[in-house]
Each structure stands twice: as C-alpha cells, then as structure tokens.
Amino acid sequence: MKVIVDMEICKDHGQCVFSAPEVFQLNENGRLVYVAEPDESLRDAVEEAADVCPLQAITVEG
C-alpha cells in the first residue's frame, strides 16, 4: 500500500491524525508528516483517514 498526500491541497487540518496516528502526525510546526508505505495491517485506518480528509488530499494506492 502506498499513501500519497497532495501537499498543495493539504491544509494541515489533522483529521487524518485521529484516524491513523501510526501513519499521520503533525510535526512541531503543525505541518503534516506521514509514512508513505505503511504496513498493510493499517489499511482500514488509512482508508478512513483518506475518507475523513476535508479536502480529499489523501490517496491510497495498491
């Protein structure tokens, strides 16, 4: 599974962090950082994070 976040669209709302904190975090500057190739066992959480993103900036491939 590959996670892609369009950082041009992302406004760091952080909703994804609540759904999949193992994959998405906000750094010390409040900017989103994420694991691009998380473990397959996190798929449900990652897909939920993509669904709850208010700007639909997250894509899950594979």
**How far is it from the N-terminal to the C-terminal residue, by CA?**
5 Å
Spatial strand order of the main sheet: 1-4
Q: Which oligomeric form is depicted?
A: single chain
Share in helix: 10-25%
The radius of gyration computed from the alpha-carbon positions, rounded to a whole number of angstroms, is 10 Å
The tally of beta strands, per DSSP, is 4
Shape: globular
Secondary-structure content class: alpha+beta
Structural account:
With 62 residues, the protein is of the alpha+beta class. The protein contains two helices and four strands; from the N terminus they run E-H-E-E-H-E. It has helices spanning 15-19, 43-52, and strands at residues 2-5, 24-26, 32-34, 58-61. A two-stranded antiparallel sheet has the order 1-4. A two-stranded antiparallel ribbon has the order 2-3. The radius of gyration is 10 Å and the shape is globular. The termini are close together. The model has no long low-confidence stretch (mean pLDDT 98).
